Amino acid sequence: MQAIVATDRAAGVAGLSLADVAYPHAAENDVIVRVHAAGFTPGELDWPATWTDRAGRDRSPSVPGHEVSGVVAELGYGTTGLTLGQRVFGMTDWARNGSLAEYVAVEARNLAPLSADVDHTVAAALPISGLTAWQGLFAHARLVAGQTVVIHGAAGAVGCLAVQLAHEAGARVIGSGRTEHRDTILGLGAAEFLDLQQDRLEDVGQVDVVFDVIGGELLDRSAPLVRPGGALVSIAEPPRVRPADAQTIFFVVEPDRSGLAVLERRLREGRLRPILGATCLLAEVPTAFDPARRSHGKTVVVVAD
């Protein structure tokens, strides 16, 4: 089969190429998914698991991509809960070959059924970003109706979904971003827009939750905003500055079939929508993810019709 392979860690996306690779093996409790659409984050090329297995052994050339939408093509021994020909979407394992391929092996528990009326291209944009937003807001920050949350990077892949989920939960959302993203962020349900290029972060006042996807100085300056009993949550790095009498949380998203099902239902009912950018074919991946060519929104790789 054909897949995108990464062979040179230092080269970034320029080191990606289309190649013929072996068809994946379905281990116990695996399924083989015929990939229809895939999500890819260029930052994966800096993750240790892209280049080494869990024992620390080199596994390059590796196939990146950890978001997938497709159809079950094969069931591994002992696999239950899914059937041949079923439409599914979800996350692939960090330390195994991923979804930028015609077929991928995935643990069945990391996939959820996908309704016939949800396009594979849309579904492939949801697993990592959607679960990250859901887990950050509700599993870690324990956001509830009536609270106020600041969401940094609110027009990004994670941030745009976090704004919608927080708004639907009854929270008051302050979304931060660049000037040109104001209308997008307010249109997603944010009550206020914080212009990171013009507004003073300190003027926001105290809030119950800060959900950060950017890190660095912005994360440091956000700590004093969190009122006692609140939470400062980041997916970028562990917070260095601790708010007084509040939680600080750094986390990496975890696969969750029930969480995927919750997100899929909202997507199907029109209550949640990722911001999609360009689509590209498998062979176009090295060019499409060149930083000089990237457009706003999630770029999705279309692998099969």
From TrEMBL:
InterPro entries: ADH-like_C, ADH-like_N, ER, GroES-like_sf, NAD(P)-bd_dom_sf, YIM1/Zinc_Alcohol_DH_Fams. Coiled coil: none annotated. One of its GO terms (molecular function) is oxidoreductase activity. CDD domains: MDR_like_2. Residues 12-301 form the Enoyl reductase (ER) domain. It comes from the Bacteria. This is NADPH:quinone reductase.
